[in-house]
Amino acid sequence: MRKKVYLSLIILPLLVCLVMGGGAAYMLSYSIESSTHSYAYRWKKLQEEYPSMRQWLDSIRQSHALRDTTIKLRNGLRAHAFYLKGDSACGRTAICIHGYKDNALGMLYLAHIYNKVMRMNVLLPDLHGHGKSEGKAIQMGWNDRKDIEQWIPIAERMFRDSHHPSRIVLHGVSMGAATTMNVSGDKGVPSYVKAYIEDCGYTSVRDEFADQLKAQFGIPEFPLLPITSQLCQMKYGWNFYEASSLRQIAHCHRPMLFIHGDNDTYVPSWMVHPLYKAKPQPKELWITKDSEHAKSYKDYPEQYTAKVKAFVSKYFN
Q: Are 28 and 41 contained in the same domain?
C-alpha cells in the first residue's frame, strides 16, 4: 500500500506536467506558429470586400506602381515591404501595419486613403513570418516594433524630398495597431514620426490570449497561459506578460488616434478605454457603432477617410 502511495505521488505530478506541457506546446503552435495568409488570398478578399476600390487596385497592379523592397534586419532575417509613391507627397509618408496572420496587401485599403486620396507615399511592411518576410513565428506586435523601427529611417530615405521636411504617420490595424502602440512608447523614435493611428489594438498579448482562451475554448488563464508564455520565452526570447501596449503608450507624448468598433469581440471593445486613458495628450478617440473587429473602414469608409485625413493633416502642417 505504501509503495502504491509513493508511486502515485510521483506519477500524478508527472502526468500533470506532461498534460500541461503538451497543452502549452499546442497553444503556442496554435497561436503563433500556425501558417499565415497568402498574397493571393488577401488580394481576392480585397476585391470582394471593397468593390469600389477594384479600379484603383487594378491600376496600381497593371502600372507596376506597387513595388517591392527588402531589408536585412539586425537579427539577420530578411524583411519585405511593398511601397507606393505619392504624386504630391511633399515628404509625407504613411507606414501601414497589418494584423494577425495577414500580410502587407491587407493594408491596401489604408493605402488607398493615403496614396489615392491624400497623395502620400506609403510603405506596407510584411511583419515577421508574414508575406515574404522571414521568420518562424508570429511576434504579436512586440518584437515587431523593433522591425518597424528599422523600417522608419529607411522609409524616410526612400521618400525624402529636398524641398519639404519628412513627416511620417504609423497606422496599424489589430496586431498592427499593437505594433504601432509598442513603437510609440520606445525611446529614439525619430522626430519626423509625427503621429500614430491605432485601429482595434489590444492592451497586451496576455489580455488578448486570456480573452481568447475563454471565448474559444472555455479555459481560464491559469495555469496554461503562464506556462505557454514561459515556453515562448524559451523558444523565441519574449513572453506574453512583457508585451504590453498599455505600458508602452504611457510613454508616448505624440498624437494618437484610437479607433475601435463597439461590437468587436475578437479584440474586445473594452480594451480601447484603458488604452486611451493611459495615453497622455494629445489624443483622439472614435468608436464606430456596430462594427466588428477591423471593420470600421468597411462600415464607415467615408467617415474613416475623413477622420484619418483630418487627424494626419493637423500634425503634418
A: no
Cα distances from 279 to residues 179, 247, 249, in angstroms, run 15, 9, 5
The pLDDT score that the predictor gives to residue 85 is: 97
Q: How far apart are CA 142 and CA 72, in angstroms?
A: 19
**How many residues are listed for the chain in this entry?**
317
97, 111 Cβ separation under 8 angstroms: no
Task: Using a cut of 0.85, tell me whether the model's pTM lies above it.
Answer: yes
Spatial separation of the C-alpha atoms in residues 169 and 95, rounded to whole Å = 6
**Do 70 and 104 form a contact (C-beta atoms < 8 A)?**
no
Q: What is the CATH number of the domain that holds 196?
A: 3.40.50.1820
Q: What Rg value do the Cα atoms of the chain yield, rounded?
A: 21
Segments forming the whole domain that contains residue 162 = 37-204+243-316
List pLDDT tens digits, range 149-185: 999 999 999 999 999 999 999 999 999 999 999 999 9
Judged against a pLDDT cut of 80, whether residue 264 lies above it is answered with yes
- The pLDDT of 189-216, averaged and rounded, is 97
Verify that 90 and 28 share a domain, yes or no: no
CB distance 194 to 315 below 8 Å: yes
Strands 193-199 and 256-261, how do they pair?
parallel
